[in-house]
Give the backbone structure.
Amino acid sequence: MEPIDPAYGTTTLLLIAAAAVAVLLFLIIKVKLHAFITLVLVSVLTAIAVGFPLSDIPDALMFGFADTIGAVALLVAFGVFLGRLLEVTGGAQVLADTLVARFGEKRAPVALGVASLLFGFPIFFDAGLVVFLPIILTVARRFGGSLLFYALPAAGAFAAMHAIVPPHPGPVAAAEVLGADIGMTLLVGIPIAVVSWYVGVLLVSRVLGRMFYVSLPDVVFGEVAGERADASDDRESGDDDGPRIDRSRPPAFATVLTLLLIPLVLISFDTVLDTLGTTGTVDEDAGWVEFLRLLGFTPIALLITVLVGIAVLGRPRASLADVNTILDQALGPVCAIILITGAGGMFGGVLELSGIGDALSSSLSDLGMSLIFQAFVIATLLRVAQGSATVALTTASGLIAPAAASAELGEFKLTLLVVAIAAGATVLSHVNDSGFWLVSRFFGMDEKTTLKTWTVMETTLGVAAFALALGLWTVA
């Protein structure tokens, strides 16, 4: 669906967007109206306010909702299936114990973050978060304290890699538009992402963890978190009607690690081959390339991983009927997460189609400041206005490209522009960002707490990345 022709000027559109966000927060935080209902309601009211033809409003609502829920539903479903299998068979505990043994108890958050940085290289933010969720919760349950100590380092690592490092689509698209070298973007992006994660995520998470106590979610994969040990005993002995699981033989660490590496390898087929095809290194239309990219399509990669998980984790310890029951129980608690995330995409889609981003872009194309500052500011404002980091990356890079071309920048400075745009597209994740709702619901945080923690951490991550890029720009 194409954006509408704006009925109002930039100032009016921005005021409408600000009012929509304010009403959304008021209804959710103060009135306590359900987030899904509120997001749909405010999306409808915003579409009317910005001047959508009434006959086009249903399509405008479905534009963002369908795109978001179509991507998120499969990822979340297959992700929680895998997470549930790891949880009930003891695989998550084995992995958590091994990580802690390698890094030490005091470095458990670092262990989670480093593992997430490695797995986040080819895996998108939402898929990585879903797969790692049981491990994060297992470590948090073992050591206690606020969940933020363990959740933010891992989630922030996936966010940093997704925003800054190729072969993720945002930085690849920005590099292509600006004419930056993909290899240079990769070589510069990785150390900037790691240092930004350490400063803007790990250190900040320690402060936020002391400021805000977030307990384990009551319901994660179908069981009450605090009652899992009791449930385990009942199911082994057959004292209830639940699935019978043989927990006396937890999987080996190598088995769990191999299982988690499967989506890492498969998804890398898609992301890496896409990058190689963009640069002309491989023929995008070759049959073997298309087949490997199909295997690397994230939902299919996760489907394959779940099937392997059933074979190596589930069936050796339970009948197929009991495995199916385990998977059924995992779906119930995440239905609300899927719907709320889809509704968040609906709100972001309405803002995108309303012309707010385009109006903002046209008024900011010449800010009279350093090019790298201009790149960061435009990407930040686009991120705040419409929510999607990828859209902010691609739009801001298109606006900056003419000025970058006329400045005849070298490869290194073009790469730093990509990083600056990625940094701006990372900050201030809020209620029009589907990732905001994933984090809120997966970690059992209300909207107010999510704004004070996740939004703050995303902002410090983006600011840290921009500060590094600016420092390198100054000395280059």
